[in-house]
Amino acid sequence: LSVSALLSEGNCFPEWDGLICWPRGSVGKTLAVPCPPYVYDFNHKGVAFRHCSLNGTWDFVHSLNRTWANYSECLHSLQPEISSRKFFDRLCVMYTVGYSISFTSLAVAIFIIGYFRRLHCTRNYIHMHLFVSFMLRAVSIFIKDKVVHAHLGIKELDSLLANDLRSIAIAPSVDKSRYVGCKIAVVTFIYFLATNYYWILVEGLYLHSLIFVAFFSDSKYLWGFTLIGWGFPAVFVVAWAVARAIVADARCWELSAGEIKWIYQAPILAAIGLNFILFLNTVRVLATKIWETHAVGCDTRKQYRKLAKSTLVLVLVFGVHYIVFVCLPHTFTGLAWEIRMHCELFFNSFQGFFVSIIYCYCNGEVSLE
């Protein structure tokens, strides 16, 4: 049919809005389309709505220069607390403070280790790589939050909701070029997140090798550790970005997209699991050596305190808290879910600070210098 014929029939044109490919709409009627199944966080049993106006065009908000749609049912499956801005504001303040403190303490630690020549060795080089990965993770989170929130128009949406438009959720712009910057920010965040997990794994591998390999040439394997920490995450993050661009190129890529997320989540979970195994084996060896050196008449409680202290240090170094939060169910609601979020983000954001204390500020060699 010609354009004039379509307009005479009062039909709204089919249109892709970045999340849904809307079919042709009838004049004066509301069109219902199932929520996109590739957006993992959506309620896939719900529907999204658009209204075809009397003049044969989709409802349009001129103040924002965007077409509007109702995605409220799609968002219904998210945690009930998703609507509580105060709760998420508190979380944002907490992890912003945590990552800021971690960034500052790590920067000072890098300067100290780099300044004193006698601290230059393979072990401290690995520590410095780990410090940098924590710092880049913090910076990428700050950039991602700022860029993604700016593109999604959070402030604009809040002002509209205040004007009784509570049943409407904004539809993404058709122009994908405006999302290039925030997509890069999201990909960069995922890459530095992955490198941070893998440098924690490298620390675990290094410590494990020192304990179990009698003649371990650490300088010989430094390049291999560097490749694991910075190179391997780049492979699966690039693969995820390509798959996302082809299969689910919607908005800023900040929403999960079905099974695609496992391209980068599976290697990260594998690193967390392997590190936990290394942690258990290292604690086992430490406990064995402590009991082997246990002399007759020695205070047993002192041995327990020594083991507990060593284990606590290893928990922070190996990032054991990650395996705890991975194993916790994601079906928490209400207070249990809030406690889980506070604990997880607290340990994630302050871990860099704790690691800098262990590897630098409380290190005997550093104190001697």
Quickly list its features:
369 residues; two-stranded antiparallel ribbon; three-stranded antiparallel β-sheet; 11 helices; Rhopdopsin 7-helix transmembrane proteins; Hormone receptor fold; mainly alpha
Entry summary:
This protein has eleven helices and nine strands. By secondary structure, the protein is mainly α.
Describe it.
This protein has helices at 3-8, 85-115, 122-152, 154-161, 180-212, 222-247, 262-292, 300-318, 321-327, 334-361, 364-368, and strands at 11-12, 15-16, 21-22, 25-26, 30-34, 47-51, 60-61, 66-69, 169-170. The protein has 2 domains: 15-74, Hormone receptor fold (Irregular), CATH 4.10.1240; 81-165 and 173-368, Up-down Bundle (Rhopdopsin 7-helix transmembrane proteins), CATH 1.20.1070. Residues 1-8, 78-83 and 153-174 have low confidence and may be disordered. Helix 2 (85-115) packs antiparallel against helix 3 (122-152), helix 5 runs antiparallel to helix 6 and helix 5 (180-212) packs parallel to helix 7 (262-292). A hairpin with a 4-residue loop joins strand 2 (15-16) and strand 3 (21-22). The protein has 11 helices and 9 strands. The longest helix has 33 residues, at 180-212. It has 369 residues and is mainly alpha-helical. The radius of gyration is 26 Å and the shape is elongated. It has a 3-stranded antiparallel beta sheet with strand order 7-8-9, with no helix packed on it.
What is the CATH fold-level name of the largest domain?
Rhopdopsin 7-helix transmembrane proteins
Shape: elongated
Tell me about the largest β-sheet: 3 strands, antiparallel
Counting structural domains, the number is 2
Low-confidence stretches: 1-8, 78-83, 153-174
Classify the helix fraction into a percent range. Answer: 55-70%
Supply the CATH superfamily name of the largest domain: Rhodopsin 7-helix transmembrane proteins
Radius of gyration: 26 Å
Number of DSSP E strands: 9
From the N-terminal CA to the C-terminal CA, the straight-line distance is: 82 Å
CATH class division of the largest domain? Mainly Alpha
Order of helices and strands: HEEEEEEEEHHHEHHHHHHH
SSE class: mainly alpha
Spatial strand sequence of the major β-sheet: 7-8-9
